[in-house]
Fold this sequence. Notes:
Blueprint: E1 2-5, H1 8-11, E2 20-24, E3 27-28, H2 32-39, E4 52-56, E5 64-69, H3 72-83, E6 101-107, H4 114-128, E7 130-135, E8 138-139, E9 145-146, H5 154-158, H6 163-180, E10 197-203, H7 206-211
Parallel strand pairs: 6-7, 6-10
Antiparallel strand pairs: 1-10, 2-3, 2-4, 4-5, 5-7, 8-9
Helix pairs in contact: 2-3
Amino acid sequence: CMQRQWNHTTMSQSQQASSWKLQYQAKDVTSIGTILTAACPPDDDFQKVKPLQAINDVDAATPRILYIYIPPEVCSTLQQSLANPNPDNSNNPKSSNPKPLRILLALHGYTGRPLQEIRKWHSVVTSLNAILLAPAGTLTPSMGLGWNAIDCCGDPVLKGVNDLDFVVNGVVETFLNVLGKQPLGGQQQGGDNSRRGNVIATGFSNGGFLSSL
């Protein structure tokens, strides 16, 4: 298992980035409200989160898959923000300067699955009021999923799959960009990604190799 604080510059140096967008049920994601529909499961049954697609400008015909899980308290806060984007915070200065959200990026191991990571980290992100991003690798001959983490593993390495671009730009950056469009606590986030979310990357086995790049 590998864990590290998110470092956009370091992780994106080795491979060229492409332009990505998120889709849910074949429609572009332009609001955090769409993500809440997929990521806030009924009765907090994390196994019922819905997949989103990340599509890039290089290979639009082959979308990548990711899952997002948001705990109930965070879902409630974001839903309230959507319903009332410009509250009167004149009597509560702290509310007009919200803290960045905690975000955990969890990368499964070779032949693993995103839902395994959601099951593993569910109680942790719930206790921390954090958001969990769980992307899927590419299919391997064993019908599992894997990552091109340079030194490991299998078909994704042999085929030169640009998983670094997917994880950095297709998952984290696209999510932060959507999040940045949503006013939180009466304040438009925008600008520096560090103000929108503090991201920690973690991974198991093959995913650990990728999170260390």
